[in-house]
Amino acid sequence: MSIRVYVPRDTTALSLGADTVARRLEREAAARGYPITLVRNGSRGLSWLEPLVEVDTPIGRFAYGPVAPSDVTALLDSGLLEGSVSHPLALGPTEDIDYLARQQRLTFARIGITDPLSIDDYRAHNGFCGLESALQREPQDIVEEVKASGLRGRGGAAFPTGIKWQTVLDTPADQKYIVCNADEGDSGTFADRLAMECDPYMLIEGMAIAGLAVEATQGYIYLRSEYPLAKQVLDEAIARTEQAGYLGDNLCGSGRTFHLEVRLGAGAYICGEETSLLESLEGKRGLVRFKPPLPAIEGLFGRPTVVNNVLSLAAVPFILAEGAEAYANHGMGRSRGTLALQLAGNVKRGGLVELAFGTTLRTLMEEFGGGTRTGKPLRAVQVGGPLCAYLPESQWDMPLDYETFAEVGAGVGHGGVVMFDDSVDMAEQARFSMEFCKVESCGKCTPCRIGSTRGVEVIDRIRANDNREANLTLLHDLCETMVDGSLCAMGGMTPFPVQSALKHFPDDFQRAANGDRS
Amino acid sequence: MNHSQKWAPQAIQAEVDALKHKPGALLPILHALQDRLGFIPEAAVPIIADALHQSRAEVHGVISFYHHFRTTPPGRHVVQICRAEACQSVGARQLEAHAKARLGVDYHQTTPDREITLEAVYCLGNCACGPSIRVDDSIRGRVTPEAFDALVDELQTRPLEVMG
Ligand SMILES: Cc1cc2nc3c(=O)[nH]c(=O)nc-3n(C[C@H](O)[C@H](O)[C@H](O)COP(=O)(O)O)c2cc1C
Ligand code: SF4
Ligand code: FES
Ligand code: FES
């Protein structure tokens, strides 16, 4: 029997040469007379170890990483196919890698273990159990289960998922929709991508359950165009799910219907905002809508629509299969379940860290992240995406949960943690926040559209030491105007990173753009 | 993507007809055209407008709203550099400056030999292994200036088989 060797195929592994590693392994093993069975699994989410090669042994899977194509010969020489741990890249049993062993993988229980497109693998790891359970239950029952789990939206606003579903269930209509927000535009986030590339059936199952819960028969995954691989994987997974009878006109022979289609965005960050997303799905410019009406009442094409983030929907199969309590048993306070944190930026060991709510940032950045990649002192961290505050060291000991972060004007957002070492110029970062808003504003309201343009100019003048004090006052005022007068969080929250930079890193605004003290 | 392919109004019409019945068909149509032709030619606008019973101005409005869609032909390869925060923290600004200098173009421009169009992008979901860039449909991580130069050499060397 030939030995099974796993080489991940997610975007990160591929971006670091996984295809070449896979080809070399196959070729060189064959040349040595040991043909291997190559499995292109998903990623385990240990990005810094990618490409992470694994080998099946009688006592479980053994890992090697990060493997460059040029390491393949030496790894085979050292006995990789027998699980030998003599090579410096050998990591021992995969499940014992500290970074992974210390996590609580609920949503991401399967990633990296399975072949993402194999329905058999998915079924062998509890796949479709949630859907099968949902098919036996009344819609209200399903909604109650989701409510009882305490699941809150993972897209940023943390709204209780069950309550949103209740509104859609309670609104009569000839057609309802489930829309998955897969726009994942925040820098520093890639958990949605990992879920879609590495365990696509989980999202499909979650959406089908949502359909049953609110009596919607059509679903759309609105996927950002920056994720070409996720598009391929999802399209293929949807086709295979239909073939297996878990999607279509007669779900598992129940007579219930749910159809699903992937739609691509087109490089507009604002289309992650749910009403802008719906406009875009309708084929229009992504202008933000006034609320009310809520999308749950008048959403896509004016019909009641559930809009949920990938991870909110992906958590649902577990909740239906294992019960609300199993999910709610994790977490703290009103933040139940697990949070998918993503360690990104200047970090030594970046990757996905799924943990119950309540860990501190410091634990995350030091014990998991191992500090900065450059080895210089950590100076600032942006948690929750480009619209959230930069946090200085004094705020790294707060537990990560929605309420604690909200109290200090910070956000957990979609769980992105972007680390910066002490070479960062926080005035330059503040300028970027305004510039990003200027580029990505939908243009509907003045404080955002004009405010961000002015914001860039004002920060440029501050950095050029042109009337510095007066311009700093102007910048503070401008931030307040944007916060108070913007229609949506794009304009309304862009000031948060700027204000936090001003507050916690004022010195950076006192030096010239070239970094010298003036 | 084969951008050198000539487009014909019939080809555009066929793409539009294949998709116009979908709910919210405009973005799928624009994607199909750009995937096939590399850009959205001006001649496509009236065809789309007719098929969807919209005004040309509306169609133009949508095309111009989205950064992804372009109305002029790109070079043989499109290289996007991630400008977002996580990549900034590991040298994206330096990479960006290096890329512009090496290629002699700014964003949204194409090298004179029409090999490479340079674009900005805000996050490719590869934020633990930046700086990241996208070359056509493949994403590359931990791109140093030296790795960027090697990539450009690779892209500018045409394979021996004669290209169309
Ligand atoms: C500017 C802006 C960008 C957003 N981007 C995203 C996104 O990329 N993905 C996402 O799920 N939610 C995003 N949201 C939040 C959505 O509007 C919405 O709250 C979310 O999709 C609801 O799903 P959830 O309840 O499951 O979190 C964004 C909001 C704003 C204001
Ligand atoms: S705040 Fe900005 S993005 Fe939001 S609606 Fe206003 S202009 Fe559009
Ligand atoms: S709608 Fe929120 S500030 Fe006007
Ligand atoms: S910030 Fe560059 S890939 Fe995410």
From TrEMBL, chain A:
CDD domains: TRX_Fd_FDH_beta. The keyword NAD does not apply. It comes from Vreelandella nigrificans. Residues 427-472 form the NADH-ubiquinone oxidoreductase 51kDa subunit iron-sulphur binding domain. The keyword 4Fe-4S applies. GO terms for molecular function: 4 iron, 4 sulfur cluster binding; FMN binding; metal ion binding; NADH dehydrogenase (ubiquinone) activity. Belongs to the complex I 51 kDa subunit family. This is NADH-quinone oxidoreductase subunit F. Keywords: 4Fe-4S, Iron, Iron-sulfur, Metal-binding. It comes from the Bacteria. Pfam families: Complex1_51K, NADH_4Fe-4S. Its cofactor is [4Fe-4S] cluster; FMN.
From TrEMBL, chain B:
Binds 1 [2Fe-2S] cluster. Signal peptide: none annotated. [2Fe-2S] cluster binds at C82, C87, C123, C127. Its cofactor is [2Fe-2S] cluster. It comes from the Bacteria. It holds the Pfam family 2Fe-2S_thioredx. GO terms for molecular function: 2 iron, 2 sulfur cluster binding; metal ion binding; oxidoreductase activity. Keywords: 2Fe-2S, Iron, Iron-sulfur, Metal-binding. PANTHER family: BIFURCATING [FEFE] HYDROGENASE GAMMA SUBUNIT (PTHR43342:SF1), NADH-QUINONE OXIDOREDUCTASE, E SUBUNIT (PTHR43342). Belongs to the complex I 24 kDa subunit family. This is NADH-quinone oxidoreductase subunit E.
